User: Fold these one by one.
Assistant:
Number 1:
Amino acid sequence: MKPVQQLWPPEFAERYRQAGYWKDETIGEMLRARAMETPHQLAVVAGDNRWTYRELDAHADAIAAGLLAIGLKAGERAILHLPNQAEFLSVAFGMFRAGIIPVFALPAHRETEIVHFAEASEAVAYVAPVRHEGFDFRSLANELVRQQPQVRNVIMVDGPDDVHTAERPDFITLDQLKSLGSDHTPPAPTSASSVAFLQLSGGSTGLSKLIPRTHDDYLYSVRRSAEICRLNTSTVYLGALPVAHNFPMSSPGWLGVVYAGGTVVLSPSPAPAHVFPLIERERVNITAVVPPVALVWLEAAPNTTHDLSSLDVLQVGGAKLPLEVARRIQPVLGTHLQQVFGMAEGLVNYTRLDDPDHVVVSTQGRPMCADDEVRIVDDFDNPVPDGTAGHLQTRGPYTIRAYHNAPEANERAFTSDGFYRTGDIVVRRSDGYLVVEGRATDQINRGGEKISPDEVEDHLLAHPQV
Ligand code: J2J
């Protein structure tokens, strides 16, 4: 990969290191540290798998060695396209260890998106299940290598019911991959300031852009999130959303749980029929959902026979949680609500666990870091006073300065002084809490006055990133 000239300017990097945000630790090293400290602690529960930290660490090592043995090189990209299964974690950590950069595709992505990611990231490998929810990923893999011949390696992960077969001789199974690498010398250590992976932008229109996150910046956001959410070795976190998404990955998500030495339980779907039995059986105490899932749980909970009493924190984010729904969470589910307003590009806001109820139900939280710079501006980039809706722009120790390989999008999405134009319309209250009003497409700040569709069109031309 070309050096990402688009990372933080040196004076900012220096400041973030001095402040202790960037600790020069890689994600692979973080898992190793946990495996040394608490080898027998349960790390992952998924389907029939129950892996300790020592086991997860050993799987990751075997995968890292296998990836290098088949010829992948540190710095090359590989598309990771797995649903919520234990191998998601072992493959992701295996890639981090080998210095290979995963591109985190979501299970629902199909040919158009995967081909686009392969092209945009110049990926050389693809990792997918043989089959998932009735979809045959082998045919997608066939099509991918036909259209993007730089994809040299396809690794198929068998599900519990699959016969061990990748079918094409040039596709291999994860088990084969793991058996290949035993004697392979580990690569030179990865630098914590280098890109660890490419996350996808949540853009509501068009294809996602690729978001380069470094070990340093991402682990800061993970550690700080784990602290805000009070994770520890007793944490049992349920991954109900697809764990490739930034929210269940880092806010605090499965990486936060690994940092804290807790247990990650993975559900194949967020439907009550899957999650309620898991919450009861594993005594889950924290999980993260999007508002429509919260609503489904609220409907199902009064009639369930499952004991949900272990659930202490329900994080809701990804889209605006309506006030009426927010108010029902604690009384109906018997759990604390935490609102999370974040983005894969960086900035994450949380309501705090000790905030008064009215703040928790009516705001989307406040930035997690004292050095998150937040600016609310009008259509002409002029700051607006607190209490007035405007465009949210941000800069800080874990917010990217540019998308991967996208000069035109970067022109639009970042200001000349390096702030990311989030595309969100928010109100900042005098106490620093943010209330999300919508996307810039829904509503444009002009003193609250409604504007015509033509003006919306003009605005979109001026702010095409939204
Ligand atoms: C309103 N809109 C929200 C919220 C995100 C934590 C939580 C969520 C994401 C995420 C994430 C919202 N209320 N509570 O990455 O780490 C909308 C905004 C935002 C966009 C980002 C995390 N929480 N949103 O959702 O990159 O419009 O990240 O800019 O997928 O989702 O989407 P995404």
Number 2:
Amino acid sequence: MSCTIVVGAQWGDEGKGKIIDILARDADIIVRYQGGNNAGHTVVVGEDHFVLHLIPSGILHKGKTCIIGNGVVIDPEALLNEMNMLRKRGVKVDGNILISESAHVILPYHKVIDKRRGAKIGTTGRGIGPCYVDKMARCGIRMADLVNKDALKKKLRANLEDSKEFDFRKIYNVYSIYGRRIKKYLANVSVVLNKAIAKKKRILFEGAQGTLLDIDHGTYPYVTSSSATAGGALTGTGVGPTKIDKVIGVVKAYTTRVGEGPFPTQFETTLLDKIRRKGKEFGATTGRPRRCGWFDAVIAKHACMVNGLSEIAVTKLDVLDEMEKIKICTGYKYKSKTYRDFPADIDILDKCTPVYEEHDGWMENTNSVKKYKALPKNARLYLERLSELLDVKIGMVSVGEKRKQAFRI
Ligand code: IMP
């Protein structure tokens, strides 16, 4: 590994936290490049469960530098709380975390606007979208402003000029305290990363959410407001495309999504309950039950293409252990046409009938499998079919939530 990007290749929650945690062993630096505390990366270390929202999952390994890039939007309160939680649980967070001076700050009004307007999309309500709106409208407040009293005062005052709802003084006071507490972590992340690359350091770029939630390549408007695809790793950190060696896409062996929006392969109630229970499919950030469905090769193929995936990691294969028959969606039928490529028209996704192929399940427990060859034959056939449909190799398979329950191929 030198420079590797890890992205979600579905609608998020693919199990990136665990894959990044495994890959982090061989990395020197782990860097988050987009999103904010809407993400929830779950990592199980021994009997301990960690859910990380902002700080890269690599923090759970000693001796690594963890970076939050300029493409991330930061709620300072959430950041400081997460640092405290980690400190209390014995994880080192001082001297090993750097935060981009150019990352944008989530302010109280972003959260209020999000809660008010985000219901239609089913947002996490963390202020992510409105913060990116201000960034694009060029009135955002960045981390560098948070530690510069005059800049913070001027920008905050301008943003709250006509507001009767938000008290400038109150927000200014609280946020300048956050600024003082965060100041020591701030850095010119682009310079740090490019110098590290020149010294042949190994860098892991940690994506949040997933390709189908990407603002450009996802199921717009039912998306998050950032670039969750591999391109976001470049703009979100200030590292150029020629420096990247590998892009790994993480897919679940089936599909899930939280929030609103089309989901062609969603299960009917009986299967939904079964998979949701077995796969513990509840949002790591909001606790909302996730919608579940069969593996959708159309969206996964789209993810392979727009991210230029070098390989995929398949997670939660064990959740399908008790399924007699397993389906894979290979196309969408809409009106008289069959679509094999991901359509931009959301109406097609919403109203289409999925075209399925059916496979025999393996009906065996795979939780303790440690190598590919030891998987039941039908599980291998299922994985091989996924690889064939997506035209990408499978580099890793995960068969449980613990670190040990995964193997490389
Ligand atoms: P937002 O990112 O809070 O604006 O929410 C926009 C959409 O993205 C909603 O459907 C959320 O449920 C979804 N979303 C945001 N973050 C995640 C995530 O980490 N995993 C899965 N879905 C997410």
